[in-house]
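Example record

One chain of 347 residues, shown exactly as stored in the release files.
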Amino acid sequence: MKVSGYAARSSSEPLAPFSFERRTPRANDVSIDILYCGVCHSDLHHARNDWGSTLYPCVPGHEIVGRVSAVGSDVRRFNIGDSVAVGCMVDSCQVCDQCHQGNEQYCRQGNTMTYGGRDRVDGSQTFGGYAKHIVVREEFVLQVPKNLDLARVAPLVCAGITAYSPLREWGIGPGSRVAVIGMGGLGHMGIKLAVGLGAHVTVISRSRDKESDALELGADAFLVSGDDKSMVKKRSSFDFILDTVPVKHDVNIYTPLLDIDATLVMVGQLGPLSEPSTLPMIFGRRRIAGSLIGGIEQTQELLDFCGRMNILPETEAICMEDINTAYERMEASDVRYRFVVDMGVFS
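Predicted structure tokens for this chain:
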């Protein structure tokens, strides 16, 4: 099937219209007309080959919301017309211990990424959601709760699950003392989800510029990392810290804020950090850990939770033709808090 989309053809070229072939649907496939696609910072990194692994041409997009247009003969969970979502993965081996535990993101053979990967059956390159249509195996398609606004759902299946998975894995709930570092696309979802889970939430930022926004998102308190007296006062105050900062930074100012046996989880920066000191970890039995999205079952759990709690990301709608401007604005942190491409205005 010939599909229209937008692609980067090299690391130095802007994204431009691109026509390509989607693979022929198989018996266990769901065909989806894409309605909305979120714009993730990872899209920009891949388009520009910042991580050195991009396959060109690259059609980004792994925050996909659409409507089922056809199903294969073996598909049982979806019907034509269903509102569905697709996240960062479209396949995995399905047989390793991690896949059996619902951790397809940690598949021992490597999961198949929604874009920039290789199809496990025919070896073809995967292309993402900056397009009008996609074909995905049934096990990696998600049901969208009927009460959620489809125009705002897309970032849940990347930014949302990236924040939700560690909150769930570390048992965050009523009474938990949670801090969120950073308040971008990931951070603002961390705030909303931690509040939804019943935690007392503090936002940590470099200045007070975002304090009113943090409180509007549901945070209970705000802590300025540059205020030494306040930081000392808050030592040993948190059970869990979600670090969403997407660049190299110094974690040593945050680890003393953890209580004994508490954990700081990295979900933003992919790459080096400033050299961490072991002193706060040894003397407080504190931990620094990392987390990568979530499995399919947990992502469905997230969507259902957001449906019950009416939790949605804060988004700005754009048309596909404005994607390069959106990338420039993302680099300048000029978005509150996530761009979503409306495919209905993509000619």
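Notes: The chain has two domains: 2-158+295-300+313-345, 160-290.
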